[in-house]
Automatic annotation (TrEMBL):
Protein name as annotated: HipA-like kinase domain-containing protein
Stored InterPro entries: HipA_2
Pfam family, one: HipA_2
Residue intervals of the HipA-like kinase domain: 6-198
Amino acid sequence: MPGLVEADDLGMYVLKFRGAGQGLKALVAEVVVGELARALGLPVPEIVLVDLDPELGRAEPDEEVQELLRASGGRNLGLDYLPGSFDFTPLVRDPGPELAAQVLWLDALVLNVDRSWRNPNLLLWHRDVWLIDHGASLYFHHRFAQGWQPAQTYRFDASDHVMLPVAGSVTEVDVALTPKVLPVLDGVLDLVPDEWLDDVFGTPDQARAAYRAYFEARLADAPRWVGELEAARVARV
Ligand SMILES: Nc1ncnc2c1ncn2[C@@H]1O[C@H](COP(=O)(O)OP(=O)(O)OP(=O)(O)O)[C@@H](O)[C@H]1O
Ligand SMILES: [Mg+2]
């Protein structure tokens, strides 16, 4: 359950609480995937870190929300609130084959299962598409422990991806975007607060190295999964 808050910069943010059921890893995924997408040129609302005073819970009438606020003292994640935005689907507006293919490719890269036509997690704002809600991506990190190694292959089911019916060539997107990922990745991983990575491996930098190892493995496997995406796309069109 995200909340809408005004921060001390007077901006309005959609707040993702550290005390929510999905835990800190969902916040890590929001930062890593959101900032990677942005670095690749995809539109993502500004992501900020928001310090929350758990005392705010005192003024909250709803008991469940009270509990959430009390469990979320410290650093939380905020997304710039896009006022007047509404849920985007390709039926509302054609995103164009290139953007659609980029979103499909990104979600396959980061194993984002939350972009189905039922729950697209895309917003239409000022006539543009914006990507939100990447907290369920990178699900392999729920198995992180000392000695973790990325698998050689991961399954990604694109059959109900919202962009599949309108996407252009994923192969072309792959050629254009693959060389851009690793050069920006360290900068992206550095944006994750150390404190969110503390209990994962020995040190936050070991956790960052594990994320990097994942991306290297996933990109090395790209010929296979891009081929699968292309087959799914051709079957759909
Ligand atoms: N930056 C934003 N600006 C405006 N509205 C937003 C923004 N981020 C999220 N929302 C709205 O809040 C809803 C929930 O946000 P989000 O999908 O990120 O959270 P969630 O906890 O994963 O919820 P769900 O389980 O419903 O997907 C979105 O579907 C959207 O309508
Ligand atoms: Mg959502």
